[in-house]
Amino acid sequence: MSKFLGLALGILAAIGGFVDIGDLVFNVSAGATFGYQLLWVVVVGVVGIIVYSEMCGRVAAVSGKAVFDAIRERVGFTPALGALLASEVVNLMTLAAEVGGVAISLQLLSGLPYRWLILLAIVGLAVIVWVTSFEWLERIFGYGGLCLLVFAVAAVKLDPAWGKVGKGFLPHLAQNNKLLYAYFAIGLLGAALTPYEVYFYSSGGIEDEWSPKELGLNRANAIIGYGLGGFLSFALMITGGALFLGHGISPEHLGTIALGAENPLGKTGLLLALVGILFAVGGASIDTVFSGAYNLAQFCGWEWGRYRHPRGAPRFTLTWLVLLVLALAIVMTGVDPVILTEYAVIFSVVALPLTYIPILLVANDKTYMGRYRNGRLANTLGLFYLVVIMVVALSAVPLMVLTNVGQN
Amino acid sequence: MEIDIALQVLDHQLLDKNGRRCGNVDDLAIEGGPGELPEVVAILAGPGYWPQRAGLIGKLAGWIGGGRRVRVDWSEVAKIDAAVELKRAATELGLGRGDDRLRPYLDKIPGAGR
Predict the structure, then answer these.
(1) How far off is chain A from B110, nearest CA to CA, in Å?
(2) Cβ contact, residue pair B102, A310, below 8 Å
(3) Residue of chain A whose Cα is closest to the Cα of B102
(4) pTM as predicted
(5) What is the value of ipTM here, to two decimals?
């Protein structure tokens, strides 16, 4: 049981990163547009985030350094400051989108007015983070998000053409609509490798007070947590493909996603889907608000972490409180959360290389890592994914413009 | 032991004697004339030193950060490990003051110590 509970960090980081509001819509839209053809891209993304999460978790456990410490030490002051600004903007956009997602799920569950629910969502999140230890935040939001497994049941019940599903796992290009296919592929990779996942994961390892003794736990967290996130992505995409492909429906609302579970499973399916979505977007709010505060505190050298308690880390605490207030202001303008996160995913790729290169460098540093530094496998995969990241970073914005944010 | 100042000291975390995170090494004061061996004499910490690191963007960030400058004599350094560890408490060295000033306000909210 305690071993199972120890996986909460990986599960929360993965659920918050893989099935947040943007991914929910993006995965189901990918299914609705291209059927099962993009499943292999999710596999590529999952392996990449496992490789880098394991690396940054190991660095955190051995040297006590979180990702933004490594960034500042390794890429120089000016690029690090640039990465900080980019990541803060993207974190805030994503946070605002997730808070909007929390309000939408609450609205679908209760029928109360959206704007009041935004306020409730923000106040609720602030109170929950203030009174709950990091350990329990991980557990509540990580395991609550597992209600999304209802989509796996839905996918099986919808009885998709399994032969085609199998083929979708083999890397291939699209026959037609190549640009849109590329846009979806880049978006799925960008979402799988979103920088806030590693910011949250590495700092979370320090919150959980990992030492080299926990390296096995780190590996299990990375593989099982992100593996599970990837599995949920598959389920969503298959559900989208089985239900919406060829019907000209492109889901752009969280309610449509939940229908994917209601169609085969009825009211219970709908309820589980909505509760799962609520915890997943709530978890993503925690991921992003903490990432924003971790990054600023680490860049400035302030005391940080929920484990230090608010009075032990005052500026860190003030930062996450301020971020919540800013997010409130953004969502209150009525901006569509789904569109906000699509932009956030695409812009976050600019911060990708500046985030992942320092992780690889520090994980190879003999002085800090000693015998725990990267082996051949981690370095081979790490270098391969740096190339993937570069391709994603260079093509994201042009593809967004060429496909009109995936609308054509 | 030989250390690489640029790689192992600059931009690293400062820890006081109690293990408290109390700033980063934002810059270093180095002395030495022509023909002499340059010597690091102090650690410079605080957003006030950011303009000399990053030009215009550093100026802006330093200004937003309040522009405080703290000079910590090199003799205060106890150990250079993953972080730069200091011999005294942060308050004695003038470090971590932002956190100390903010703490009384947060303390007014119930549960701040939990």
Answers:
(1) 9
(2) no
(3) A314
(4) 0.95
(5) 0.96
